[in-house]
Amino acid sequence: MIAGLLDRTGGELTVLGCRVDELPQRERVLFRRAHLGFVFQQYNLLPALTAAENVAVPLLVAGVPRRVARERATAVLSKLGLGARTGALPSTLSGGQQQRVAIARALVHEPRLIVCDEPTAALDHTNGEAVMALLAANAVRPDRAVIVVTHDARVFRHAHRIAHMDDGRIVSTTTPSEASGGAERHPATALTETYP
């Protein structure tokens, strides 16, 4: 619903100050392209494109010249430890590497809102921490937010607020220190998570 892919069943839907539920379909597409980044649980990489080409897709769709898009894609992949794998096809990458390519694709066009579905599910501790640090760094920038849906409690310390959900309804909200039994939360982060 946040992306305008599903219609609301009640109430109003305002995202980044825009009534997404009132936009015509074409305007919803333009809104998504300009303002949203997605990290899907199943990666959704295009199998015929290299890692860098997959990451560059949001830039190319927005009209960024191919050379510039490739350079920006390579830079983001390098931040995620995949600088040596920019020319690799998805079928030659591990699940964790594919997940990092998907995360790079969500970050490359610097969207105002990033929506993530289990972004650390296929990652080991070190890579999971690197990904969450990158997402958290994006979340604290002015006029930016990240929403993470996860079962991974290791992610909680990067959050600003945690909403616990049951059957599609928020049943409680906590802070990372409350969720971890009083441990201090990671400084300077503003990542919002939901926990199904």
Structural summary, described in words:
By secondary structure, the protein is of the alpha/beta class. The chain has a domain at 46-102. The chain has helices spanning 25-35, 51-61, 66-79, 95-107, 125-139, 176-179; strands at 14-15, 18-19, 36-39, 113-117, 145-149, 159-166, 169-174, 191-195. It has a 6-stranded mixed sheet with strand order 3-4-5-8-6-7. Strands 1-2 form a two-stranded antiparallel ribbon. Helix 2 (51-61) runs parallel beside helix 4 (95-107) and helix 4 (95-107) packs parallel to helix 5 (125-139). The model is unreliable at 183-196 (pLDDT under 50).
Order of helices and strands: EEHEHHHEHEEEHE
Average pLDDT, all residues: 86
**Per the principal axes of the C-alpha atoms, what is the gross shape?**
globular
DSSP summary: helix tally: 6
Percent helix range: 25-40%
Structure classification: alpha/beta
Number of strand elements: 8
The low-pLDDT segments are 183-196
> Which strands sit side by side, in order, in the main sheet?
3-4-5-8-6-7
**Radius of gyration (Å):** 17 Å
Distance between the termini: 16 Å
Largest sheet: 6 strands, mixed
Beta-strand content bin? 15-25%
